[in-house]
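Collaborator request, handled under Task 6.
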Amino acid sequence: MRYEFRISGVVPDTLAANFPELDRIPVREQTLLLGVVADEAHLYGLLTRFQSLGLRVLEMRQVPA
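Structure tokens returned to the collaborator:
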């Protein structure tokens, strides 16, 4: 499944490096991180990484592949 995560603020290169499986697209005052999520455990792992790095997820949604 492919997911889009909308993150508050601009995610710098140093933090984006923690998500090699996701593509990063900066948008106005936010960052979109897109990529394939293998399963529910991977999804929850991503959410835990966002939280541990202080990244605020504004929106998460499944998108067409």
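The cover message to the collaborator said: "The mean pLDDT is 96. The first helix runs from residue 13 to 16. Please let us know whether this matches your experimental observations."
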